[in-house]
Design brief:
The protein contains four helices and four strands; from the N terminus they run H-H-E-E-E-H-H-E. By secondary structure, it is an alpha+beta fold. A hairpin with a 2-residue loop joins strand 1 and strand 2.
Length: 121
């Protein structure tokens, strides 16, 4: 085992305390500068975002309050709060027998979509 090292003298302790005080002071000063800069950086980012979106805000104001996420425009008519829901059933009709065509020709045709209420029993 190694013998214990010589304990530091009073001059070394005073020098260590001075260096510690200087480092703590520098750290405190840098943290204050950083805390002062963060609001200004946030304000600059907000101003840049506000400036970049000004044309979008102008366009939204021109289109009026009814235009936006809550409404859809269909054929020039604005739909506000209306939900259109429906179901469809594919009905394959044998139209080949009526026209005298082969069944292969009728299978190649696109199926017709009819509303659920109009289907045949």
């Amino acid at each position: 085992m190694m013998p214990p090292a010589n304990p530091p003298g009073p001059l070394a302790k005073i020098l260590a305390a001075i260096v510690l005080a200087l480092l703590l002071g520098l750290g405190f000063m840098f943290s204050l500068v950083l805390l002062a800069l963060i609001p200004f950086i946030a304000l600059a980012v907000w101003a840049w975002f506000w400036w970049k979106t000004r044309e979008l805000r102008k366009l939204m104001r021109e289109q009026g309050p009814g235009f936006g996420m809550g409404s859809q425009s269909m054929g020039g008519a604005s739909m506000r709060g209306e939900v259109i829901d429906g179901e469809a059933v594919v009905i394959r009709e044998n139209e080949a027998s009526d026209a005298g065509e082969s069944s292969a020709a009728s299978d190649a045709r696109e199926p017709r979509l009819l509303p659920r209420d109009d289907r045949k029993p």
